[in-house]
Structures are given as C-alpha cells and as structure tokens.
Amino acid sequence: MFGAIATVIGTCAAASLAGFHTMWPTSQVYGRSFLGLAPGSRQLALTYDDGPNDPFTLHLLDVLARHNAKATFFLLGQFVQQRPEIVRAIAEAGHDLGNHSWSHPYLIWASPAEVRRQIERATKAIEDACGVTPRLFRPPFGGRRPGTFALARRYGMETVMWRVSTYDWEADSPEFILNKARAGIRGGDVILMHDGGHTRLGINRAHTVAATDQLIPEYKNKGFEFVPVTKMLR
Question: Which end of the chain, N or C, is less packed with Cβ atoms under 10 Å?
Fold first, then answer.
C-alpha cells in the first residue's frame, strides 16, 4: 500500500515538474533558448509581443525613434495580415521582426503539424507584409514541450525567451511596469513587454508606451544601450 502511494506521489511530482518546464521562461530542459547576455552586460533588449496593434505599436515606434533605441517585435500572423503597413514601419525603422505564431495558441497542447502551421502562416504573413523572413521565434505564453524549439530551429529561427517580465498586461500605471523592470534588470537582459494583446486588435497599451518612454532614458543615463536581439546574438 505504501509503495503504491509513493508511486502515485512520485508520478504527480514528475508531472508537476514537467508542467513547470513547459512554461517557465528561463528553463532549458525542453530545448535551448536565448535569454540574454551574461549579467553585467551594458546591453538590454526590449521585446514586444502580440502586435502589430494600431495605434500603440506606432506610438512605440515614435518613442523608440526619439530615444534612438532599437527593439524586437514578436508578431502575430493574423494581425500582420490585417495591419501590414505597421509591420513595414517596424522593418523600415530597423527593428527586429520575430515570429510569435499565427493565432497565439498554447503550443504545449498543439500537435507537431499544428505547430508547423502556426509558424509557417506567421512567417508567410510577415514576408508578404515587408519582405523580411523572421529569424527569431517566441512561443505564445512561453509555452512549449519537447521538440518545439527544435522545430523552430529547422525553420532557421532562434527561440528567444526572457529574463525580465514587466507584467504589463496587468498594469494599472506606467510606474507598475517600471518597478517590475527595475526589480529585474541586471544587464544583458531580454525584457518582455507587449505592444498588443492576443485576443484582438486595439488592446490599450498606453501604459507600456509611457513606461518605455521613461525606461530608455533612465537606463541610458546609467550607461546601457538598447539593442535588437539579433545584435545580442552576434
């Protein structure tokens, strides 16, 4: 009896641990991903998920241009198809374009065929919009299972996760986002933010725009440089 109970407990613990690694951003158990440079680097990478999103992606582009900073945008194919002119503006401004899937599903539940479909449709939408083939991939919700990152690599993409999350999707002020960023930044970090929302176009990201406008000069004054992820990878 006790042996059976121990087996059940062990199985539950193993399942819980496996589930942890499907979602934890810094875990490398289910495949290699890029999280940033060694702590103490003077480079920082701002990354924005779930766009393009009208008008907040355009507002962010204005902020980034004003501060002479580059960033990385992980785009949803279905929104790219609806707002290709914003994608062209991102590319023309010299920012990185990343694949964030077509429709933002939990890939931990998706079949390999569905993962391929999500990646391929998003890549084609980005290529059709601006002629750029994305070389970076970020899974929706950070969710993956064994083989997800390897599949992205077969499409020539490096998977990019993050070390610092600003939790901007639940922010009630720019200061909320800034405090989350300040608490995590050590240098060399990939920072997670959002210019859109995966449920629909038009999600309000004004707090993210305002926080970005404060974060960049604050950390530039400390000697940091804001770069696209591809520059970190080089």
Answer: N
Give residue limits of the domains in the chain: 2-233
172: annotated active-site residue: no
Q: What is the model's pTM?
A: 0.91
Strand partners, 38: none
What tokens appear for 189 in the block? 């970090």
Q: What percent of the chain has pLDDT over 90?
A: 88
pLDDT interval class at 22 (50, 70, 90) = confident
| Count of alpha carbons within 13 angstroms of residue 58, beta-carbon side | 8
Q: Which helix (H) or strand (E) holds 166?
A: none
| CATH for the stretch 2-233 | 3.20.20.370
The one catalytic residue among 59, 95, 100, 194: 194
User: Among candidates 61, 67, 63, 124, which has minimal Cα distance to 92?
Assistant: 61
Q: Is 189 a catalytic residue?
A: no
What distance in Å separates the CA atoms of residue 70 and residue 196, rounded to the nearest whole number? 18
DSSP string, 28-46: -TTS--B-BS-TT-SEEEE
